[in-house]
């Protein structure tokens, strides 16, 4: 099994029966469900794995795709057969993609760090505007608060935008 394969998400082997897949899904869903203390993203992965492996046609297509990609990796100098194998972008620009939640790209560590810095600046502006600057100039405090309200959407847009194609 590949690292992070759908079989691994459910904790089963490739030869598992439909009943074993259903039981593994219930067990994994109970553990990963947000109401039970799990993470929403891990629950989405479990649900996506069951959606594919629980349907015989989708399971066959998934197994064929895994076999083809393993075959392509085994051949030296072979390129991936589909653009989605190369991160879904021309030129092989890679960006982590979660297949469990519909192929939504995840920001890399640098983007997450920029986002967190922007949020810290926003918080600092709110605190300064509400405590220090307000004592000296109400219009300056209001300006800082308006600027602080613009930062979060701008940070989200900057993290969510696709990387430039090269």
UniProtKB/TrEMBL annotation:
Keywords: Membrane, Transmembrane, Transmembrane helix
Transmembrane spans: 115-136, 142-160
PROSITE patterns on file: DNAJ_2 (PS50076)
Gene3D superfamilies: DnaJ domain
Stretches the record annotates as Disordered: 69-106
Keyword Transferase assigned: no
InterPro entries per record: Diphthamide-biosynth_chaperone (IPR052276), DnaJ_domain (IPR001623), DUF3099 (IPR021449), J_dom_sf (IPR036869)
Domain J: 5-66
Domain of life: Bacteria
Record bears the keyword Transmembrane helix: yes
CDD domains: DnaJ
Record's protein name: Molecular chaperone DnaJ
């Amino acid at each position: 099994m590949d690292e992070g394969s759908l079989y691994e998400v459910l904790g089963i082997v490739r030869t598992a029966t439909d009943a074993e897949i259903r039981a593994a899904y219930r067990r994994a869903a109970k553990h990963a469900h947000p109401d039970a203390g799990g993470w929403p993203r891990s629950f989405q992965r479990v649900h996506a794995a069951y959606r594919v492996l629980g349907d015989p046609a989708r399971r066959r297509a998934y197994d064929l795709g895994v076999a083809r990609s393993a075959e392509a990796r085994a051949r030296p100098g072979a390129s991936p057969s589909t653009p989605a194998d190369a991160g879904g972008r021309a030129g092989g620009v890679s960006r982590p993609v979660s297949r469990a939640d519909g192929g939504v790209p995840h920001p890399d560590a640098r983007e997450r760090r920029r986002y967190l810095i922007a949020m810290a600046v926003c918080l600092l502006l709110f605190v300064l505007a509400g405590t220090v600057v307000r004592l000296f100039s109400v219009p300056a405090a209001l300006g800082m608060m308006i600027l602080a309200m613009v930062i979060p959407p701008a940070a989200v847009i900057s993290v969510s935008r696709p990387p430039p194609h090269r």
